[in-house]
Amino acid sequence: xxxxxxxxxxxxxxxxxxxxxxxxxxxxxxxxxxxxxxxxxxxxxxxxxxxxxxxxxxxxxxxxxxxxxxxxxxxxxxxxxxxxxxxxxxxxxxxxxxxxxxxxxxxxxxxxxxxxxxxxxxxxxxxxxxxxxxxxxxxxxxxxxxxxxxxxxxxxxxxxxxxxxxxxxxxxxxxxxxxxxxxxxxxxxxxxxxxxxxxxxxxxxxxxxxxxxxxxxxxxxxxxxxxxxxxxxxxxxxxxxxxxxxxxxxxxxxxxxxxxxxxxxxxxxxxxxxxxxxxxxxxxxxxxxxxx
Length: 292
What we know:
Elements: E1 4-7, E2 14-17, H1 27-40, E3 42-45, H2 52-60, E4 83-86, H3 100-105, E5 122-131, E6 139-143, H4 144-150, H5 153-159, E7 163-166, H6 168-174, H7 182-187, E8 191-194, E9 196-198, E10 205-207, E11 213-216, H8 221-235, E12 241-244, E13 251-255, E14 259-263, E15 274-281, H9 284-290
Parallel strand pairs: 2-3
Antiparallel strand pairs: 1-2, 3-13, 4-15, 5-13, 5-15, 6-12, 6-14, 7-8, 7-11, 9-10
């Protein structure tokens, strides 16, 4: 079967048909994915029964895979290159309502950009559906390119050049979780990111926002928070949002430089959901241009 790119909408989100991600991809297939990612930002590969090793092999073709700095005591999965997007406890049962891991993961229901709190944030996220509830909860994605394009030119000019402090502790505090160790806080200092980014491949500009964003550098705190809240509300209006409907064994990936996303709730005390997450870090050469 030849590779086909089937858009979900004319400009945002697409399904890729004709690739088996359990196998090593050839350069032409990788280029097809790169081009589709630059054009549509969010890509879906249906019915991909990948192992952890196969998922890592796929992700690593696009760059360096992120390793978590969080305390291993919090983790169910031993490999720090994976995030455990699940409601499964270490003993195999379901997480209790008041469990620490459940509280920590509740922040995923806030609009966010993966790893924006790191000096080397996510370039691309890869998420594999291993177990889904009978009615899988959707994941929502916001097209930050379209949101930028819709801003008045005067406001665009005012935003360019602004820089924002991002911290995982800011987003988790918004979700009511503050129980980080001193070691964790040392390993994840705040990161400064541009508020407006230009995509390295497409050349399109986009807003770069996240629940991790705490303040605009050099701006009074109240004014800063009001601006970030206003922009987030604007960028997550329905006309900019695509709701992804999961199917068993989907593998999806998205461009973190120009999207935000959030999880949606489900009956997690009755049904198992297990997604395997990893992220590819922004390359050093691109980070150098963003820090100018």
